[in-house]
Amino acid sequence: MKKMMIKDTFSTTSSKFQQKAYGNGILDPTTSKPPQDLSTIQHHLTQRRTSTQPSEHSHQQYCKGISDLYNEAGVSFLIQAEIMKRYYGSDPQYGRAHGRAITQVPEEDFNNGLSNPLPNILEGLKTRVLPSHLQSHSLHSSDRSLTFCHFTTEFKRTDGNFKQAVSQAAYDGATLFSARDRALTRAAAIPGRGNDKAAMETAVLTCVTDGKVAEVFAHHSQNGQYHQNLVARESLLSYPNRGRELIRNTQDYARSKSYELAALLGADLEEQKQESKGTCGLK
Length: 283
Prior knowledge:
Helix content is 33%, strand content 17%. With 283 residues, it is of the alpha+beta class. It has a 6-stranded mixed β-sheet with strand order 1-2-3-4-5-6, with helices on both faces.
């Protein structure tokens, strides 16, 4: 009897993950080429927000809390409670997945031999609000799935391996870029739906944070390689908290791209007015 060969698959926490991902064409920030619109993205994400910052006392409590945490779960909880924007009440069409593997991804060169991406946070449109003919773009197989996602976050504890989280974010970004590219290819085949601007712009963003600092990366592809470029880096411990603004601007920007992509494919979804596109004047 012929022996069946078992294909090795490296998880995102494997010591060999970064080397394998790089071999698959997922570049790190030091070897990536910047997108043409990098300065435009930086302008959007570093805007000052109109909403009032939390009080200095509240900020000091956050700083004390984050310094006392020793695991990713604690960092995740505090960041989501105190720093990240929540859309639960303002936009029932937009959702967040916590520590959930992206399973509905075709095998391509970039993910060959790698386990499914497992971002700590993934945000996108809820699949169930989309027309049935677009639900095949879902990133999950269950009824609580997300589609047209443009944003993930990777957490590390304050003394954790930040470089590993950056590598995990690179894989997240390549996966979301690939999914967006498939959607744009479908849109281009629909008369009157093709959009050169959407195809050229950088839309996929990832955030890496340990609760003390936040780094945001932009993701794009050139010549079959997936590039990861640092857009901005801000402290979450200084006051006023520019890191908080950076993360929220990133969330809002990515959310607007989810709606734009859905509209390009013919989905009639009304974006909430108080969450207007772009980042100027956002709360």
